[in-house]
Amino acid sequence: MSETRSFICIGCPVGCPLVLTHEGRDIVEIEGAACNRGAKYATQEFTDPRRGMSTTIAIEGARWKRLPVKVTCPIPKDRVLEAARASHRLRARAPIRRGDVLLDNLLGEKGIQVVATRSRARASE
Ligand code: SF4
User: Fold this and answer.
1) Residues with Cβ within 6 A of ligand 1?
2) Per-block average pLDDT, block size 10, for the chain (125 residues)?
3) Residue having the nearest C-alpha atom to atom 3 of ligand 1
4) Under CATH, to which class is 54-116 assigned?
5) For the whole prediction, is pTM greater than 0.70?
């Protein structure tokens, strides 16, 4: 029996409404996309939805108490809360340079890193 899922494509500001028809895990049809990025987006959302994550963590020895960080590649949508909790347990110490790796293999997934998105000098510098 066919079922449908609806998505709004985020590939550009147009925001095409997409309707994905599937039978179990098999995709039958994707309608509503004005370009091929829409089908790719709907397929990804249906088969393996992932999200980027940006947050802040505590930093010691700097003028600012929080350090903005992000993950280097999208993580499974259903593990975002777990990833946020793991990130919030991190403690950085100044000086930090933008791009410094603060945690490797987040969630045990090889290649997913938490990196600083801002530099932070020591408070006395
Ligand atoms: S399907 Fe293409 S045109 Fe439509 S929102 Fe996605 S990227 Fe934009």
Assistant:
1) 9, 11-12, 14-16, 33-35, 37-38
2) 96 97 97 97 97 96 96 94 92 97 91 95 82
3) 34
4) alpha beta
5) yes
